[in-house]
């Protein structure tokens, strides 16, 4: 029994001397850091105003892989191409005006046409905005799910809730110096003069307004022309003939009627269409509403007031949403005690609370995201085999070389090479670590190969001497420690086995 125990111990000891290679495999894919964090803007779930949507993303920088360009996709359709350069952050823009949610994807394409896909980024587009008079509003206005706002100034308001894009305005010629300030760099868009055709507003002649156009153009911002009290009046028509309309990116519009009854929403939309046909420029309806002290003022007793106003609001917004050339709109907010338009107020300027009309406005013009998961989605790409294939070619070249038969202990190298050639070629990016691990094993095995040592031929007299020395030496040559120990153990096992059999 003791002999059996000794045998078991010796076998365990013997096997512990045999080298075993254990590969630690994890799923830390080298491309996932870029894939999951490439897109910087728009942010996930973000509500953006319609028009030009800025897109920023990280340069693909993984190992020595060279990217040729990036394809930009919206809802699965390629809309732009950005060529790689040395910048860490790359930028472009896409033009979207339909109120909806969208799926953005950036695909990095190598010179040999391998593709690495970013996460799918979901964001929302909305045309609806807010105008707010900071001289009259004393408290933050309740959210109406609008995506942008302006306040007839170039200084952002402190009374707007949530994260909304602020669009500065050059109200009149006294504000022009701002166009040469450092603050311009914080914005992408600028609104031009406010109703220059009226003496109690910006009060500028066509020639005066046109003379300042270069100051707007030099900012590099997207420029909205002056907004007149009616879009196709004589002042604006003359302005359109005086300036180079190529310097104007969009046309802000003000339209007010004194009646909101049947047919007025259609009249409103026809006025918008007429302006577009004249200039073929995108349109922002930056002020629209109805005002009539006898019908819609704060002191009016007109029973049909809310019904008419709410119907007019719904019909005009539906029409603006249906027109791709309309980028943005915002209903003008009279205070609820205003004698001309109190019943058209969206919110109380003293409390910020929404009126019934404001609650209606909040419910209109929103992206339909019911049941939609707006979180990022991981995209499974085809596995990247190029590094592995290069390593396989390198190994094959060595095997085909004339001196390959001089290498020793090639079994491990050849086994790994065969595994590499037999790897599943349908692995996706989530299994990239398997491909990369096998590539590393093959590289390590390649680098571990050694050529056998060739003993120099001895002269004849040295051979006789050497043979004499060998015959006088121990019958067991001394090698490295591990070989001697293994030999002794094997002899002991054989002897113990012999004794066990003969017992």
From TrEMBL:
Polar residues biased stretches: 467-476
Signal peptide residues on this chain, from the entry's feature table: 1-24
GO biological process, one term: fungal-type cell wall polysaccharide metabolic process
Keyword Membrane found: no
Gene3D superfamilies: AF1782-like, Glycosidases
Region called Disordered, residue ranges: 457-476
GO molecular function: hydrolase activity
Taxonomic superkingdom: Bacteria
InterPro entries given in the database record: ASL1, Asl1_glyco_hydro_catalytic, GH
Ranges where the Asl1-like glycosyl hydrolase catalytic domain occurs: 142-361
This protein's UniProt keywords: Hydrolase, Signal
SUPFAM superfamilies: (Trans)glycosidases
Listed name of the protein: Glycoside hydrolase family protein
